[in-house]
Amino acid sequence: MTRQRENYREDVAGRANVEDTPELLAYYDELERFDAGALWTVANKIEPWEPQSTSKPVIWRYADLRAHVLRSVDLVTPEKAGRRVIYLNNPGRQDVSAAVGWLYSGLQVMHPGEVASAHRHSATAVRFIIEGRGAYTVVDGHKMTLGANDFVLTPNGTWHEHGVAEDGSPCIWQDGLDIPLMNALEANFYEVHPDLNQAVAHPVDDMTKTWGNAGLLPSGGDWDKAYSPMYKYEWAPTYDALQKYAAVTDGSPFDGVMMEYVNPHSGGPVTQTMGASMQMLRPGERTKAHRHTGSYLYHVTKGAGHSIINGTRFDWKEHDIFCVPSWAWHEHANASDREDACLFCLNDLPVMRSLGIYREQAFGENGGHQPV
Amino acid sequence: MTRQRENYREDVAGRANVEDTPELLAYYDELERFDAGALWTVANKIEPWEPQSTSKPVIWRYADLRAHVLRSVDLVTPEKAGRRVIYLNNPGRQDVSAAVGWLYSGLQVMHPGEVASAHRHSATAVRFIIEGRGAYTVVDGHKMTLGANDFVLTPNGTWHEHGVAEDGSPCIWQDGLDIPLMNALEANFYEVHPDLNQAVAHPVDDMTKTWGNAGLLPSGGDWDKAYSPMYKYEWAPTYDALQKYAAVTDGSPFDGVMMEYVNPHSGGPVTQTMGASMQMLRPGERTKAHRHTGSYLYHVTKGAGHSIINGTRFDWKEHDIFCVPSWAWHEHANASDREDACLFCLNDLPVMRSLGIYREQAFGENGGHQPV
Amino acid sequence: MTRQRENYREDVAGRANVEDTPELLAYYDELERFDAGALWTVANKIEPWEPQSTSKPVIWRYADLRAHVLRSVDLVTPEKAGRRVIYLNNPGRQDVSAAVGWLYSGLQVMHPGEVASAHRHSATAVRFIIEGRGAYTVVDGHKMTLGANDFVLTPNGTWHEHGVAEDGSPCIWQDGLDIPLMNALEANFYEVHPDLNQAVAHPVDDMTKTWGNAGLLPSGGDWDKAYSPMYKYEWAPTYDALQKYAAVTDGSPFDGVMMEYVNPHSGGPVTQTMGASMQMLRPGERTKAHRHTGSYLYHVTKGAGHSIINGTRFDWKEHDIFCVPSWAWHEHANASDREDACLFCLNDLPVMRSLGIYREQAFGENGGHQPV
Amino acid sequence: MTRQRENYREDVAGRANVEDTPELLAYYDELERFDAGALWTVANKIEPWEPQSTSKPVIWRYADLRAHVLRSVDLVTPEKAGRRVIYLNNPGRQDVSAAVGWLYSGLQVMHPGEVASAHRHSATAVRFIIEGRGAYTVVDGHKMTLGANDFVLTPNGTWHEHGVAEDGSPCIWQDGLDIPLMNALEANFYEVHPDLNQAVAHPVDDMTKTWGNAGLLPSGGDWDKAYSPMYKYEWAPTYDALQKYAAVTDGSPFDGVMMEYVNPHSGGPVTQTMGASMQMLRPGERTKAHRHTGSYLYHVTKGAGHSIINGTRFDWKEHDIFCVPSWAWHEHANASDREDACLFCLNDLPVMRSLGIYREQAFGENGGHQPV
Questions:
Q1: Is A289 in CB contact (< 8 Å) with chain B?
Q2: Do C259 and B217 touch (CB under 8 A)?
Q3: What is the ipTM of this complex?
Q4: Tens digit of pLDDT for each residue in D236-258?
Q5: CATH number of the domain enclosing B128
Q6: Range of the domain at C290
Q7: Which terminus, N or C, of chain A has the lesser number of Cβ atoms within 10 Å?
């Protein structure tokens, strides 16, 4: 039956601008019978002038979430829940359970002596430790111990399991995965380890001790995977690197002193789908606004400050998490004139780059600052 | 307010299986206030055991669509419509106007003397000629003439425009683009050429004459783009290549004699997001079933036969188009014992490979053939 | 005992300029005892201002050599000689038996029904057919048939053997190898095939039929070697490619219409140590002079003309061979106003590029032409 | 005139074995007139069964050379000598002034306040500090300060100059360059800086502070050179890396705990022509023998021990230098049961790998140890 349509008309040369007529409406109905449609009825919708992110800028405050995370321990057992995780549910992305864009993230808690069952999946994960002692992760038989602000990779297809040592303390960490992307690309597989747990087959922390040395790789060390063999990236050397780099760079006008975590075997991103960076806003630093393609999820690692995202100010402090959707204007400011502030960022930059669609723009007006 | 939830429970070790309780329902409501949720309520949904494509296997018969395509000439002007295109609207992907997965496709018609306005966008396009004389495409100032079963690339970011020569005949072609993917990745930009048309700045067909020679490249020929400089791939040498290759290969059990179109500068795919292949089913050939990640859109270039996709038989002949969704079982058969049949295929294999998520499986039972 | 020395003195700031004294001469003798020396006595010698090739420009005329090559058949048996080859012995490189730089070349003859014993070595070879019918080469079990102006690769480490079919005619070809380079780099291994001959394990000419198609590669065709899988490059498609390219290019001022033979799997050179190109001098074409690092050995494939190399004119015609040493000025001219002339070139450009030492300079004076 | 020849005859199937006859001798003379020869007279010479290095295994003891190096200060001025360097002159390579293979090396001394004139050349250099305070090197405007056992790169084509700070002490270092290779490849250019000295245009040590951080690179840090941007590699983090790696590896049976210095931007070698490694022989460690292509020059960085090279024992201690020619058997032993010993190694492995000619063999007999 014929009905009025939303044809997304625009009165611009080179754009579709067709008015409904009875004849056309009948034609559209006819096309539907053959699983087809007239492009000009949707052309302007599917070819927007610039990206329209469905994600909203959101801040998740650790002060809000921490108690709820801890409470999950009382509410569900690991056996029933699989993992006790509170996930970040962007109001614009609830259909795919994403924190921003195609990135999933959640806060997980585990008590001393607990260990999750081992599994593997097409999704790639990063686990960033927030608090607690004794956390560890086993990746394909390699056990990595984890302290606050360390993170570990569990890439696409690797068997992995998380635990906390018997003599540790309750641990909370942030998980970041590309689960929504894997689902969107219809390439997500999931498998539970046949033994539910893996044997540790190598010396503890061997991958980072082997591959995590500046300007040095193991001689004859073959590595044929596309992800980094340096499974764990620790906070102390990261912060040290930022200090060293800060001493010799002017920094970026948009990001302060920023470094990307890389695969030491290739110099490329840590995984094929998710990248990570750490940036330092120096005392008193306030950056200029820019925007770029790609979805960004920030974790405040140190200090306090605020970010302005598409004209809205978000104040943050340690362990708060906030997101910047694709093509959203953003700028950052350190609240302190004495202390630096550090932001960890998980993003899909490797996807943008591999597919040739990274794009960046500086905010040109108002001295580079958004009106708030 | 509390309500019952679909928690996607599974009674399998390592999977979430939590029953709603009043306490939990209150907890879920509380989490929503902070843009958060409990992972165990969605875990099994977002971590499926294997990919669940939302696309349906569909065949679009040229006999059905051709008249409708031609009729569009009478119904809309190029000025109003932008382009006169009937797009393939997969019943499972109408929200994103995709033919399959994240691939858009449509049939476009143009009359002699017509020329579309030039534009560029983040989406990459392939234009495969079905019928007519005199079609041409201009890509960044390079004019490529096009005959039946030739195809031309208009990659991400290139200015391009299509036309038909004054002394040509009405032309119909199939467009294939990654528009849905670019939108999903929130990286789609669109721009109309300031002059609405480009000047032709190089000898006609120069890119294919320069780069389209087996085992030979122009000396000192620099090329710093990630897509192929051989903008046009012609049918005659393609069919000749299939014949030559067929003479020395057993072929693939799943695909017969299959070749991939490549970027001669790198040996890689023609673009970063879309790949293309041509395969020949030899007289009487019937392949075995397999499945793999990635979305495939086939165009019957020559001959007739059928494909079985997830247990349903689709009979096809010249210029029919059909799709195979990600992880769908599929096998092909040539209907003729005397003539070969050829299938052009547009796919997102470069995305699967760049992101490390290509996966393939042979159908193990029943001699490799699906029960229909 | 002290003696006068050649200290290569130069009176230029930053260069060594030390006069012998009795004290210094005694010091030098003392250093010799410890296998040491004073750098300033050799510094200017080992750090020249620019490359000083020891190779001489030479032309080898086919009219001179052909009879001698044929005569070898009467003088030695294949069993005793291994292969009946007259090699090109550059007057400046007789110590390493090179035609130019580190490239060896020779003319080989073989009679119908003859076949050389199979062997392999670290040296990479190219075999360019000059005359005769029925020549073939077997490379790692792949038999390639060869006609005039075709060439075949027998890369580093591949088992290979040459033969002429029973129903062929006496064949003469040019061999080009990097034997001198492999010896200089002290990496040359040689092995005779345990059976003296290999079995042909694949359809004849399969590698070229599989890999030698413009813009198309076999689907799923893995190739993990660093050399080209397209073992044979034929003359007819090469000449056709030159014609096509010539129609759309201005050509190089130094080389006319020039194409490089490439590995279709990577777009890179045919082997890691030797490259090959074919260039066409159009009717009446006279190029300008330039020079570059790398050693070049030309084989006149078609036509007649002359080249001026470091100020000396060398007239050439079909099947003559001439060399251009590293950093020698050179320019070419076609003798005909009606016919094109073609030059095949074997070179060590891949070495220059892999090691980052390729360098090029145009001749700036006299309209780009050397005074003769 | 005819004369007897050395034809390198071998009585092995597939090898040349032709006896001189008057007729052949006349033929050879005739060929010489055309700058040609008969391959079978040299075939076995130029195609050896395995590499025959002309380099001799040599040890240069620091105790022997140090006084001579220091004495050069009294004997020549920097202005006259260019640089005061005692070079290592392998008895088998005196024609090319090489320490081993195509590698040059020398010991250079400089007094506080001295600075060499800036120059650049096609040769790539490594400067390894032996003793003294205040050494520095400027590379393309980047000043790097250097302590004992640090080394700095001055790659192909970079402007560079060495100096010692006014408040430093006399410094001695080892230079390692590929000068002989650049000359052999006829690609060596040399240029004196127009101002004789460069301006320091960046913060001191910026390249190492920017690029020398484990698993982290500067965000947006573009680097388009083929050599490492981490110009300086320091001893302290190197030794620390060896300790960390030693804790989790069994090590190599041939080399103990060995790491390669890499370009952090690519994971590849520090330069395109020379590689470097540091290896640790653990207390009491004695390795097994192997051989490989490539020329190796060792500098004892720490401890004492011995190496057996082609059956000859060489005892070494701190700052001794010794060489292992291509394809020479070698094994190492630490003399101490309490202290580790460390060997820095400069080699041409990147050349071997880029050209596809690296090859390795374990010594199979006698438990892996050479008879001495």
A1: no
A2: yes
A3: 0.96
A4: 999 999 999 999 999 999 999 99
A5: 2.60.120.10
A6: 59-368
A7: N
